Amino acid sequence: MKRVIAIILSFITLAVALYGADFVLKDRTDHGVKQCIAVYKQPRDSVDVVVLGSSHVHYGVNTAKLWETYGISAFDYSSAEQPLWISYYYLREICKKQHPKVVVLDMFAPAAILDGFKYTYAHLAESFNGYKLCRNKINMVDVSLDDKSELWNKYFPGFVGYHDRYDQLTKQDFKELTYDYTNFKGFTPNFGMNSVPAPSVYTEDVLPPSDKSVEYLQKIVDFTRDNGIELYLTIVPYQVNHERAMGLVQEEVERYNWIEQYVNSLRESGDEHVFYDYTLTHLYDIGIDFEGGSDIYDESHLNYYGATKFSQYLGLHLRYIYGEDMIPDHRGDPYYSSWDVHTEEIKAIVEENGYEWR
C-alpha cells in the first residue's frame, strides 16, 4: 500500500511540476496565445460579439472603442494567420461558456490561404498554445497539420516547443503570471505609420477559395445558424494582393467576389442570418488613410488610429443591422466592468506610445 501511495504521489508531483513549468515557460504572445488564455477568463455569457480571424483582427478591431462608444462587449478571438478551420474550432470553444449574439468573421483567410500559402504552418503555435486541451483542440490540431507527423512532433503538445525557454525568461514573463486576463479583450494596438497603395476592387472575375476553406466556411455558417447566432462577414481594410504564396500572384479580390456570390446564394435560398460587408467596395465610408499612411502600420495591418476608425464604423454598422435589443449597451453594468478596465489599459498603452486617444 505504501508503494502504491508513493507511486501515486510521484505522478501527482510530476503532473504539478509539469503544469507549473508550462505555466511559466509558455510564451504569451499577443498574436493568439493571450487571446486564448483570456477567453477562458471572461465572465460567463458576457461576450455579445466575438471577432474571429487573423492578425488583421487583433490589430484592426479596437474592442476598447467598441465599448467606450457603443457599450458593445466584444472580444477579438484571433490568432496569426488564422485559417477558417481554426476559426471554426475557436467558435466551438468560446460557445462552451459564451452565447454570442453575433460572430464577426474576417474574410482574409479564405482569400489568401491557398495551396502554396507560405505561412500555412509557420504560426500554428500562436493558435495552439493558449487553447486548453480538450476534444476541440485535438480536432483542431489534427485538421491543421494535414497528417504531417513531423508537425505533430513540433507543435503538440505545446510544451515541446517552448520547454527550453529557461534562459530566455524575463521579468515580463513573470509579470504576465499575475496579470488578470479577464481584462484582456484581444485587441493589440499597433503604433507606426507607413504609406501603402489603397486597395480597390479592380475586377468582376470570380475565383473560389481552397476546397478546405469552403468546407469550413460552410461549417461556420451551419454552426451559427443552428445555434441562433448572426454571422457578419467582413474585410478589415489592408493592401490586398501583397505576396503571400510561393511564386503565385495573389488574387484575393477574385475570392472576395466569390464570397459575395456565396452569401447572395445563401440569402436567396432563405438563409438570412449571414451578412457580408464587402468593405473594399466602399472604403470611403470608413475613411482609412492609406496613401498618407496615418492609419497604416504595414501593408497588412492598420495602426491604432486606423483600428479606431474601422471600429467606429463597425460598431455603428452592427448597431444599425442588429439593433440594441440584440447587442445591448452594457455601459454602467457592474457585470461588464472588465471592459471598463480594458479600456483604461488600452488608453494607458496609447499614451505610453505617444499617440492621441481617439
Task: Give the low-pLDDT segments.
Answer: 14-18, 159-166
**Proportion of residues in helical segments:** 40-55%
For the record, the count of structural domains works out to: 1
**Text of the CATH class:** Alpha Beta
- Structural class given helices, strands, pairing? alpha/beta
CATH superfamily: SGNH hydrolase
Gross morphology is: globular
Strand arrangement in the largest pleated sheet: 2-1-3-4-5
Give a brief description.
The chain is an alpha/beta fold. It has helices at 2-25, 33-39, 55-60, 63-70, 84-94, 108-112, 124-128, 135-145, 149-155, 159-162, 171-178, 211-226, 252-268, 304-326, 337-352, and strands spanning 49-53, 74-78, 102-106, 230-234, 274-276, 296-298, 301-302. Helix content is 47%, strand content 8%.
Q: What can you see in these coordinates?
A:
The structure is a single chain. By secondary structure, the chain is an alpha/beta fold. It has a single domain, classed as 3-Layer(aba) Sandwich (Rossmann fold), CATH 3.40.50.1110. Helix content is 47%, strand content 8%. It has helices spanning 2-25, 33-39, 55-60, 63-70, 84-94, 108-112, 124-128, 135-145, 149-155, 159-162, 171-178, 211-226, 252-268, 304-326, 337-352, and strands at 49-53, 74-78, 102-106, 230-234, 274-276, 296-298, 301-302. The strands form two sheets. A five-stranded parallel sheet has the order 2-1-3-4-5, sandwiched between helices. It has a two-stranded antiparallel ribbon with strand order 6-7. Strand 6 (296-298) and strand 7 form a beta hairpin. The longest helix is centred in the first third of the chain and has 24 residues, at 2-25. The protein is globular and about 75 Å long. The termini are far apart. The relative contact order is 0.17. Residues 14-18 and 159-166 have low confidence and may be disordered.
